[in-house]
């Protein structure tokens, strides 16, 4: 059974119909941009939201001084990079940053949350390239990075990572000059990396690889979807064998670094018992972009997106055109199940000084609409977010947008695209107070046995207040927050949960009984943002833990 009530009047949530001088006028309710901080101090090359409502932000450490000078620094030389923070923790509640401390270079690295909510960050450059670092969220604002040497068998620079629920470990795939994968933390014995010939096959020497930072998604059958350049496979990492080879995605160009497109796994739904798994890849760079950019010529980026159901027997990319070209975009799944495509450029590719024409307008993509009605162009920002920028969804529903630095150090003037340290929030239309009558408020979770979390297959209670009626399409969704960098949102996942019952007490209190998916490959253990969406209007999310 689903959370369906008596059928309700059809209600379009994003379009307001006004009766004006006897004529019906459609007004699009607006998305808004707010500048939260003028100086985060550190470029948000990498960003992730913890279950303590802090946002971990870090850059590389070898771009010279950042704009956050550490107190008590003894060095006289003003260019000493070690006198500056290269990572900060942003408090969503206080709208402030505090410095964190990195020992070695985290440039172009990867990250995944473990089931206990600690962030495992892997690799980087130079002395940092074989390190693993942990960040464990804490209530007292004293937590910091912990670094461990030689945790990776080989250098992992521009590699991707994904959390594996059965092993409670992380797979780290690829990287510059690395055609292999490995697992961290290491289980005893195994230390060698495993070859992945797929990475050789997709490597393009004259395009700086064009297969770095591969897209990784965990399918609900426990296999890995691995996409690099224009190709993809379904990989059984336990047997170390390729289960399926998917068709090449159409389009005259690549989709992986430095042709950086972006990718999401579309929301998984209990209605099909999570058997349909669909991935989407959007944008990228035109063929030859990397070499053209070396000569200062920026080719128009790819405009196409491909969608493919990776489960079942017949795989085919279904292609669509975005409203405009985009490279280095970020794709985020919103609580509504819609996909936000944000940041990046219209021309060029990833890398220093390799792109032009910032893509100032985000797109909203509604996967379940009819083909011609899926894309909407959102309000423009004035701030360019090119190479080394990122975006994350916050529990209150806003999107935090930060970073951008296509230069090899912090440069404020005299370049086409200065280092960008402003922090913005994109405020979706669903947060507008005009929808408050539909919005579930004061969400709380009641755990039946263990107050610290719920195991796969068990049920839990959600209570909330609702001023008006329940809409027929009320749903409860769980969102695994990603680690974002270089257009990837590693481990991002949205799961529509089954609801066994939903009862109202007549004075606006609603009690729902919700099921955690039985399979760890559908909903891997870890912290999720839980949201109730009523008629397209989401509540604020609350953190909940699948154990
Ligand atoms: C950022 O700086 C601008 C210009 O100086 C100022 O108007 C604005 O209030 C500042 N914003 C914040 C969030 O500090
Ligand atoms: C989380 O798990 C990791 C890996 O097992 C461990 O190193 C870390 O100490 C744990 N963190 C907490 C806060 O328990
Ligand atoms: C749904 O999938 C699970 C495995 O993930 C299976 O155990 C269960 O029987 C399936 N239920 C139905 C109704 O097919
Ligand atoms: C989508 O297309 C189908 C068939 O062409 C049509 O019946 C349906 O009304 C369309 N839906 C919307 C929302 O336009
Ligand atoms: C319910 O939430 C609103 C804001 O969403 C807050 O102002 C109010 O205090 C909350 N009420 C309770 C009982 O927590
Ligand atoms: C919710 O359902 C109503 C019909 O009951 C429909 O008109 C509306 O578009 C739906 N909203 C979303 C976001 O699906």
Question: What does this protein structure show overall?
Answer:
- With 547 residues, the chain is an all-beta fold.
- Helix content is 2%, strand content 39%.
- Strands 22, 36, 37, 38, 41, 42, 43, 44 and 45 form a nine-stranded mixed beta sheet that branches. The protein has a six-stranded antiparallel beta sheet with strand order 7-6-5-4-39-40, with no helix packed on it.
- A hairpin with a 4-residue loop joins strand 6 and strand 7 (96-100).
- The radius of gyration is 23 Å and the shape is globular.
- The chain starts with 14 loop residues before the first strand and ends with a strand.
- The protein binds 2-acetamido-2-deoxy-beta-D-glucopyranose (6 copies).
- One 2-acetamido-2-deoxy-beta-D-glucopyranose binds at residues 273, 518-519.
Q: Largest beta sheet, briefly? A: 9 strands, mixed
Number of domains: 2
**What is the terminal separation in angstroms?**
25 Å
Mean pLDDT across every amino acid position = 93
CATH superfamily of the largest domain: Galactose oxidase/kelch, beta-propeller
Q: What share of the residues lie within helices? A: under 10%
The tally of strands reads 45
Low-confidence segments: 1-28
Radius of gyration: 23 Å
**CATH fold assignment of the largest domain:** Methylamine Dehydrogenase, Chain H
Q: What is the overall shape?
A: globular
Bound molecules: 2-acetamido-2-deoxy-beta-D-glucopyranose
Count, helices: 2
């Amino acid at each position: 059974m689903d959370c369906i009530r008596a059928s309700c009047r059809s209600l379009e949530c994003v379009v307001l119909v006004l009766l004006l001088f006897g004529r019906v006028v459609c007004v699009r309710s607006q998305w808004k941009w707010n500048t939260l901080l003028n100086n985060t101090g550190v470029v948000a090359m990498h960003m992730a939201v913890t279950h303590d409502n802090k946002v971990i932000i870090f850059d590389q450490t070898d771009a010279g001084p950042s704009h956050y000078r550490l107190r008590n620094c003894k060095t006289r030389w003003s260019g000493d990079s070690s006198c500056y923070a290269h990572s900060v923790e942003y408090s969503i509640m206080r709208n402030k940053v505090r410095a964190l401390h990195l020992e070695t270079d985290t440039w172009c690295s990867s990250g995944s949350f473990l089931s206990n909510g600690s962030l495992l960050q892997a690799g980087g450059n130079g002395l940092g390239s074989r390190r693993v670092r942990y960040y464990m969220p804490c209530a007292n604002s004293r937590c910091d990075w912990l670094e461990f040497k030689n945790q990776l068998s080989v250098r992992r620079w521009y590699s991707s990572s994904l959390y594996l629920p059965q092993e409670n470990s992380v797979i780290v795939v690829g990287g510059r000059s690395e055609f292999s994968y490995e697992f961290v933390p290491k289980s005893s014995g195994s230390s060698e990396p495993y070859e992945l010939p797929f990475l050789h096959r997709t490597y393009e020497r004259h395009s700086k690889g064009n297969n770095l930072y591969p897209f990784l998604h965990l399918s609900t059958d426990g296999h890995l979807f691995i996409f690099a350049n224009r190709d993809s496979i379904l990989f059984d990492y336990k047997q170390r064998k390729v289960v399926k080879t998917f068709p090449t995605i159409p389009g005259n160009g690549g989709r992986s670094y430095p042709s950086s497109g972006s990718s999401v796994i579309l929301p998984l739904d209990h209605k099909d018992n999570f058997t349909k798994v669909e991935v989407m890849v959007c944008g990228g760079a035109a063929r030859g972009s990397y070499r053209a950019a070396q000569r200062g010529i920026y080719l128009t980026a790819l405009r196409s997106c491909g969608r493919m159901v990776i489960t079942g027997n017949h795989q085919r990319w279904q292609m669509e055109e975005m409203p405009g070209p985009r490279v280095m975009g970020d794709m985020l799944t919103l609580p509504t199940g819609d996909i936000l495509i944000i940041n990046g450029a219209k021309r060029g590719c990833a890398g220093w000084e390799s792109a032009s024409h910032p893509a100032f307008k985000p797109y909203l993509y509604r996967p379940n609409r009819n083909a011609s009605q899926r894309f909407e162009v959102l309000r423009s920002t004035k701030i360019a977010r090119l190479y080394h920028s990122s975006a994350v969804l916050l529990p209150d529903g806003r999107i935090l947008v930060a970073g951008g630095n296509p230069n090899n150090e912090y440069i404020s003037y005299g370049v086409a695209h200065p280092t960008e340290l402003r922090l913005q929030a994109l405020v979706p239309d669903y947060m507008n107070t005009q929808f408050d009558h539909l919005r579930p408020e004061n969400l709380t979770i009641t755990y039946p046995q263990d107050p610290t979390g719920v195991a796969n297959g068990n049920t839990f209670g959600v209570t909330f207040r609702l001023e008006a009626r329940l809409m027929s399409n009320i749903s409860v969704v769980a969102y695994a927050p990603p680690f974002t960098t270089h257009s990837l949102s590693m481990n991002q996942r949205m799961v529509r949960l089954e609801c066994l019952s939903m009862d109202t007490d007549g004075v606006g209190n609603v009690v729902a009984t919700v099921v955690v998916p039985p399979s760890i490959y559908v909903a891997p253990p870890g912290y999720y943002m839980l949201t109730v969406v009523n008629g397209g209007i989401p509540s604020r999310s609350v953190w909940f833990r699948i154990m």
